[in-house]
């Protein structure tokens, strides 16, 4: 089981980058990073993913970037990108980042994601990065929006934190089907009138932590397109297999 480090540890390490780390996965000491290069190579392999659903499926390539399902029914977004599959050790690290008061992990996740060529190219081509917002209720419970932290570390100069709003609070949907999630999220997101000028005609990268069914990203993308966005690409840390 991964050891749970307090928030101050990550701020301390970030303040003194020359200090050695202990790998959060294999516990090796000293490590040049909070997840050592060997573990990154093992658990974050470079694979080609479908640009529709972000799944790493057989037969995909730059010449054939979409799976059959996404060719038959294209998603509402222009393209989707994920860094890793939502499996060990990310299925333990990401909940710690989101729920266990360890926001400093966002800086490391963003750094590793920017080292991925396709993700770096998508961020460079974007006009705006917008995180999937939390509802006020969820924000009070958690204290921070992990997607907003990630977006700021990916490119603070392009990040817009308040353009997209979550206007409808939904209960946890981990046990819901995709159809149920889509119904629950149908009117969950909106772009405030004061921010529409920042959206109209822009190429937007929508940032989130984990893509499961894609229902949240689908609803948020529709809200941005309805507000006049020229293109929406979605980017997440992990994709559930």
Q: Would you write up a description of this structure?
A:
The chain has a 4-stranded parallel sheet with strand order 1-6-5-2, sandwiched between helices. It has a two-stranded antiparallel sheet with strand order 3-4. The protein is 37% helix and 15% strand. The chain is an alpha/beta fold. The mean pLDDT is 89. The radius of gyration is 18 Å and the shape is globular. Helix 5 crosses helix 8 and helix 9 (178-184) runs parallel beside helix 11 (215-226). It has one domain (49-168, 184-239): Rossmann fold (3-Layer(aba) Sandwich). The protein has helices spanning 7-15, 37-43, 68-72, 90-99, 105-114, 117-125, 136-142, 146-154, 178-184, 196-199, 215-226, and strands at 79-85, 128-131, 164-166, 189-191, 203-211, 231-239. The protein has 11 helices and 6 strands. Helix 11 (215-226) links the parallel strand 5 (203-211) and strand 6.
Brief sketch in words of this structure:
This protein is of the alpha/beta class and 241 residues long. The chain has helices at 7-15, 37-43, 68-72, 90-99, 105-114, 117-125, 136-142, 146-154, 178-184, 196-199, 215-226; strands at 79-85, 128-131, 164-166, 189-191, 203-211, 231-239. Residues 142-239 form the Phosphoribosyltransferase domain.
